[in-house]
Structure prediction request, 522 residues.
Amino acid sequence: MVLLIYGLVYKKQALRNGYLFLVSLFFYYRAGGVFISLLLFTIASDYTWALLMHRSRSERNRKLYLVCSVLLNLFLLGYFKYALFITNSVNSLLGTSFQYLNHFAIFSNAVFETGFRVEQLLLPIGISFFTFQSLSYTVDVYRRRVEPEKNILNYGFFVCFFPHLVAGPIVKAHEFLYQLRLPYQLSRAEFGMAIFWIVNGYLKKIMADYLAVNLIDRMFDNPNYFSGLELSLGIFGYSLQIYMDFSGYTDMAIGIALLLGFRLKTNFNSPYKAQSTSEFWKRWHISLSSWLQDYLYIPLGGNKKGTLGSYLCLSIIAIFLVLLSGQLIFLVVLGAVALGLMVLMQKVNSVKKYIHTNVNIMVTMLLGGLWHGSSWLFIIWGGLNGLGIVLHKLWLSISPFKKENPWPLKIVFVLLTLTFISFTRVFFRSNSLETVTTIFDRLVHQFNVDLFFKVIVGYKQGVLVLVIGYLIHWIPELYKQQYRQRFSQAHPAVMALIVIILFTVAYQFKSGVLQPFIYFQF
Prediction:
């Protein structure tokens, strides 16, 4: 229906943009209900701050308007994602009895007659994505990288364009706003490529759900019932599942956007081909990684030095760690560690330089962990990935392989990187630290390698999907580009036949109702 009506308006720019804005609002309302009011508030707020910045001749006022935009966005994000956690943690830490009340729930119940429980956390769908996207706009306007959008419907369309609204890719203002003024263009090859990405994403989602239902979920929910060998299978399976689930969504988003005449950037670039943690984060969730680089890592000083902002961010993270621990003694421990590092930095120049040049990596990765949620598990996951990048930088300074690595060594590095990334995801996927402890205990003490052939036979279909998934992932990019182009340029009848065959095969692995996309919860 959306495409049918779009076919009547796509040649008229203003009508096209306004129609897609309304469609996007409808889709978000269907997914998020009354939380659409937060989306509309974000649109109206940052649209206004950007215009005020543009019209102001005072640099001081421009900074003030930017600060207002940043604080409002971070307040909304923090309130909905972290307020309950902070309230409970303060009560646990100080013995107080503050009561958490979700004022949005109270308002919604009174005005819209919803039935939200006012003492529970309410997480608006996609809030992390549309908040970061809107923030990129006001920052880009402040940096004079883009002109502010005069038409609020166009700006609203940029923020809530439905293909990428709830789970990315995160689109920056300077990468998308100019497209609103371009005439609709879609070549025959681009149409074929759009169909390819939509089908590719849907097939990935089918396979991801199959792995989740038949292999991964049961292992992470009850790790005590499985050997370390089986859990290893589940861990590598989860790495493939989360990739296919998340990249499957963004593949479909890119394809649908292309059908509508808009180009979104690639969000995944075969991340499990990475030969290091540094390379992995250049290939995984590229839109978030580049957002953090442009709007956090570089402003904090990049890899040149730590700044006052770096240590302010570290202080905020430290406060979260104390709240997570629920123990004031943890504050003393962190203070002692900080004091010790300060003494070392004063006495040993090499330590000072090393900390200054790597502090922003740890800050960025730790905040990236917090972006996913207020939990020790996400903090540890982010910290481990930051540590992996720092250690890789250290390895580069002492590595005997300064030139191009021979292919056997590349394979080793790829497998080592995949293993490291997969095992950090134990913290990402587990429901509690107890689950993490149990999993690693089974891996160390109950691996049971003698069960190898029984495990392979017992999970033969899951193992088959796992092996096929990784093998397809590791196909050289040149060959992938070739079969994408052949599909996109094929006769429509041939294209339809291929789609029917692929859907028929995938249907055999369909696990009942499609599971929610993993990143909808963030």
